[in-house]
Every structure is written in structure tokens, then in C-alpha cells.
Amino acid sequence: MRDAITTDKVILEHCLTDEIAADPMTKELAEVKHDKHVKTMGMY
Amino acid sequence: MAECNPIATPLDVGLQLAKSEKSDESLSYREAVGSLMYLMVGTRPDLAFAVGKLSRFVSGYGKEHWAAVKRVLRYVKGYVDKGLVNNKAASGILQGFSDADWAGDYETRRSTTGFMFIFGGAAVSWATKLQKTVALSTMEAEYMTLCKAGKEATLCGMRSRRTRSSSSTA
After folding, report:
1. Which ipTM value was assigned to this complex?
2. B122 to chain A: closest CA residue
């Protein structure tokens, strides 16, 4: 993993909570946030 | 459940369930959770957390667990025609997201790991799991999650390279 980061194959970025698509994988969300993340997952 | 009213989210916010000492065998709890798990593994990442949470209680469930399952079924009814849609105009970069919910499990104080990888506009890999050990800080919980996500990223990267090389030789 360290090699992948130093060679830019993997780029690590900090995301705000609202932008993390994995947010609904760890907790129950209210409707608005849930809908937003469902769209981010590519569900239509 | 065919006549039920659809609902917008699979679980109530802040829902806390505790394991029952004895399972109510008159309920088809295990069968329902198993069916939902089949959906979740294939095409419904939005159900992952709900299914993961409900499956912790297959050895001790009662009326409140059954009510939670019925809520998920109401949600599925509302979103029955939704599915993962790939978009050829979307980014061709594999994007991974990881998150942790520190001490989210009410009974054991263990944290929840969650990650998702998106490629071509739709999720291609996802997981939610209760961590094996108790994290003493949010940072520790996030770090454990990053480790899991890193391993999955390596695997996804290998798959993606293999797909590219096989498509270029075809």
C-alpha cells in the first residue's frame, strides 16, 4: 500500500462526512442524507 | 407485506436492538434476513448496514427485531425498481470510500467498519462489518477501517488491471 501511495497509484484524500459514500454503511441515516448517498452509489 | 406502505429509509435513526435471550420461533426472522442478504450482496448496497445489523440477532430475536425487518421490507417495496446503473460518461478512476462508526454497537461497544468502491458511476464493491476488537478512539476505529479498505483496494486494483489487459488483448 505504501508503494502504491508513493507511486501515485493510490491517492488518499480526506472527505467530509456528507461526501463519504460509505456513510450509510456504518449508521442509520435520515431520509435526505440516505437519498443523497443512494444516488452516489449509482442506484437509480 | 404486499399491501404495506413504502418508507424512505431502511432503519430508524438511532435504532438500538439488544439480543433476546430466547428466539420467537413463530417468526420467519432468519428466512427474511437471509432473503434480504441475497438482495444486498447482489445489487443493493443501500441495504448493507440494515442487513448487517439485523443479522447480528439471528440467534436471539423477538418482536422488536421482527418490526425492524418489516421496516426494511417496506423500504424495499418503495425502491423495488432501483438498481445499480453504470454510466459510460462517469469517471474511469476507481474511487474508494471508508468510514467507521465508533462504538456503534450498543451491547459490546465495538465499532462498525464500512467501505465502498465506485467505478463507472456505480458501486462495485461494498462491505459493512462489526470490528473484531474494541477501538479506544475514533482514530483507531477509522484506522482499522482503512486497513480493510486498503486490502479491498489492492484486490479491486488487481481485478481492474486484469480486465484492462484482457480487453486490450481481445
Report:
1. 0.92
2. A42
